[in-house]
């Protein structure tokens, strides 16, 4: 196994990696800087579109991967990465106050899912589904810091991280109508001794064997978790403390790309880089793109 920094650019808070099959490049965001990034791992060069706000996820459109579904603070926008122009699609309702979007991902039908957080508040965030016509439908509540999403291989389970609560949840999922029900706890970092010292569950992906790969913010690692037994199968020690998210990419989806963030007051020269992890002995699947 090998862990290598593949980006020359160091992000303040790199997040939301999404592999683009068409260009063989990696989209991700630098959240509080407001940048949507596209990395060529072969050269280490990152192209950037800067926006005025907090960027939290980036997902290519199924019809054209240069058109991107993004969130910008409280807005959902369509971004043309080539021109840098963006179009407002919808936004959070006024009654959600100071809530803003965070991580997001698409299911196998191309529906977008995203959650929210309210700064300095507990259990005020929600999980939303973006339905046709760019209508936001609330699916779950009492979330503190909405984060990583993943679906089981049979699309009958939705996994979801509440980072601040230090919990990984799972729902019964109906792919046909996009309903997520029967929310319960899969892993509780506060109570499960194996997880107690591993920071906060952040971004997440799943491999072809149905095992979860979870980035541990402030834990300096990526965990491979068996959701059936709720145990850690593998722990990847990363070169920096704040590990934010991961996704599979490369021509054969056998490279795990990992985003990271800087940590104030700590000398970690590679913090904020995108890393490529190879030789894992497993792989992922092509990511789901957004369908209008």
Automatic annotation (TrEMBL):
Domain of life of the native organism: Eukaryota
Binding site for a divalent metal cation: 15, 147, 202
EC number of the protein: 3.1.1.17
Alphabetical list of Gene3D superfamilies matching this protein: TolB, C-terminal domain
Cofactor binding notes: Binds 1 divalent metal cation per subunit.
GO cellular component: cytoplasm
Pfam families: SGL
PANTHER family tied to this protein: REGUCALCIN
Entry protein name: Regucalcin
Annotated source species: Nephila pilipes
């Amino acid at each position: 196994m090998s862990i290598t920094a593949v980006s020359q650019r160091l992000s303040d808070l790199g997040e939301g990696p999404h592999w683009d099959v068409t260009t063989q490049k990696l989209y991700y965001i630098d959240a509080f800087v407001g940048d949507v990034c596209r990395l060529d791992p072969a050269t280490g060069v990152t192209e950037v579109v800067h926006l005025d706000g907090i960027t939290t996820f980036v997902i290519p459109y199924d019809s054209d991967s240069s058109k991107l579904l993004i969130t910008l603070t409280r807005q959902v926008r369509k971004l043309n990465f080539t021109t840098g122009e963006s179009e407002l699609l919808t936004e959070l309702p006024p009654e959600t106050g100071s809530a803003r979007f965070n991580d997001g991902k698409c299911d196998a039908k191309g529906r977008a899912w995203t959650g929210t957080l309210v700064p300095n508040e507990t259990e005020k965030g929600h999980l939303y589904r973006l339905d046709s016509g760019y209508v936001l439908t609330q699916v779950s509540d009492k979330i503190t810091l909405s984060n990583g999403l993943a679906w089981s291989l049979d699309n009958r389970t939705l996994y979801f991280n509440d980072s601040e609560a230090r919990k990984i949840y799972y729902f019964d999922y109906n792919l046909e109508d996009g309903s997520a029900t029967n929310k319960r706890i899969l892993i509780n970092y506060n109570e499960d001794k194996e997880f107690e010292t591993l920071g906060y569950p952040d971004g997440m992906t799943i491999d072809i064997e149905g095992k979860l790969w979870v980035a541990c913010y402030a834990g300096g690692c990526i965990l491979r978790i068996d959701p059936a037994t709720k145990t850690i199968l593998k722990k990847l020690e990363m070169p920096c403390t704040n590990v934010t998210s991961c996704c599979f990419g490369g021509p054969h989806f056998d490279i795990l790309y990992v985003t990271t963030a800087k940590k104030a007051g700590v000398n970690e020269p590679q913090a904020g880089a995108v890393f490529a992890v190879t030789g894992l002995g497993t792989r992922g699947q092509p990511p789901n793109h957004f369908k209008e």
